[in-house]
Amino acid sequence: MKNRVLKIALVVVALCVGTRALAWENIGHAVIAYNAERLLDPEVKAKCRHYLKASIPFYATWMDQARSIEPYTVCDKWHSTNIDAKYKVVVGSPTTGAYHIERIRKEMANGAYKTMSDSLVKINLQYLIHMVGDHHCPVHVRWSKEEHPQFHYSLLSNGKKLHTHGFWDGAIAFKRRNWRAEKHFDHMQKLSPKQAKKMQKGTAYDWTQETADVWRKHCFYAMPAGTDRAKMSSEDVATVHAIVDKQVQRAAYRLAGVLTEIFKE
Amino acid sequence: MKKIFLVIAFVAMAFSAKAWSSVVNGASFHIAKKYMTKEALAEYNRLVALRKTVEHNSAEVKDAKVMLDAELRSTTTCEKDVVVRIERAIEVLRNSAKYTDKEQCEAFVTLRQMLIKLHTISTIAIEGVEHSHHDFEFTWSGNREGPSPDKRDKYETRGKLTWSKMWNSSFCGWHQGWSSNYYAYDIDLRFGRIREQAMQGTVRDWAHEVGERAKPMYEWAKPDMLLRNEPRLRLEDIHLEMVARSAYRLAAIMNSVVK
């Protein structure tokens, strides 16, 4: 009885904080942005802070908050990218996030950011910080229901229906609710400079393709339809964590890589 | 079942009565310590240690208000007022040799909690502004209002918030996973430019300043209003600025107490 009361009280406290499940949930974006910031060299970090007038993680969830506010409603579709019937990422569509990641990278490359107003640089950074994170979230690849019906299913949470999107968005904190960003960073596998460079290669389309492959080759099997997350074995939880941690690592290194590519003199 | 409900209600009430989340409270204390003199920091740490070892009464925060007149001045001598309580606490800490450990503890706890309350917009009660004297409920449209203005109203509203709960604890939800240390770092980074100015003045000056920020809000913030996400995003900046001011002022007070 005492345990039940405590559990209910904890749920109420959690609800009082006023969060809502969004892409990666707020904590996922915060962790990716925090880890990326920790990986930056001081010069690039200082430039990001100069334009943002805040830390990088502060804007990690901004796109989620702003998507319904003019003039940012245009970015509502940028949180994910489509995959076609042949399991390939759709290239070149301005209603996808990967397109805009690449657009911004190109527009700010080779010192071109210096010709932009500070406010434009700031908003571009805000987009990148969020979108690079989103495109490493396994459920932020858009599988059309008609072309890929097998990927549209539900999980369970204590017998109650739970959408797969909701589960994978919050998977970084699954069974790790009390972890702060610092702990996630310490836990993240660090790469040598050579390994980091290799990981940072490619375009947002390549990374999205990789995320799509992660979904269909790993997530789909790690948490098949009807899996009840409350009844998962510790091995199954570890499998989910391994998938998510790898995606977070990729997102953090790549975000750091994109920011370095823009600002490093 | 009734007991469970009562526990839930109690926890919910307790949570909304407290000022700021523990992460944000911790952040303000981290920042304050950074700007204390060596002597002030030593005294601060002494009081923190004392607080852990000496039995004392916690500061009563639930109904604490900052009472301002129509010109936004704090002129009250009412013992329960936030400003008066801060002034009394400073008096005790400035003359700590005259007071027992318990009294010093209580003054220290009061100072920290009441400074936070002073910088919480929903604590400000302005003469002639009826709804500033009581907490009130409103509807928040939620993070996901809708993809475009024409579809916005079709999304369900997220639900009810109270004015005090919004200012006390809702903003940190956007920064899950942040430690107090990191919050402190980010807030100081953003608002360091106001530090020198913030550390000047008296408690009553600070009350007036916060009142000036609060008063215009009460022109649109009313019971049963619908608050959309756009203004709420801007309110977070004000909340964080208040956290910064509270922190810098705690440092200023501790620096003055040991002089």
Describe this protein's structure.
The complex is a heterodimer of chains A (265) and B (259). By secondary structure, chain A is mainly α. Chain A is 55% helix and 5% strand. Chain A has a single domain, classed as P1 Nuclease, CATH 1.10.575.10. In chain A, the strands form two sheets. Chain A has a two-stranded parallel sheet. Chain A has a two-stranded antiparallel sheet with strand order 3-4. In chain A, helix 5 (97-108) packs antiparallel against helix 6 (118-134), helix 6 runs antiparallel to helix 11 and helix 10 (204-222) runs antiparallel to helix 11 (234-263). Chain A is globular. Chain B is globular, with a radius of gyration of 19 Å. Chain B has a single domain (20-257), classed as P1 Nuclease. Helices cover 57% and strands 6% of the residues of chain B. By secondary structure, chain B is mostly helical. Chain B has eleven helices and five strands. In chain B, the strands form two sheets. Chain B has a three-stranded mixed β-sheet. Chain B has helices spanning 2-17, 22-34, 38-53, 82-94, 101-118, 149-152, 163-170, 180-191, 195-198, 203-217, 229-257; strands at 66-68, 124-126, 137-140, 159-162, 226-227. Chains A and B meet through helix 1, helix 2, helix 4 and helix 8 of A and helix 1, helix 7, helix 8 and helix 11 of B.
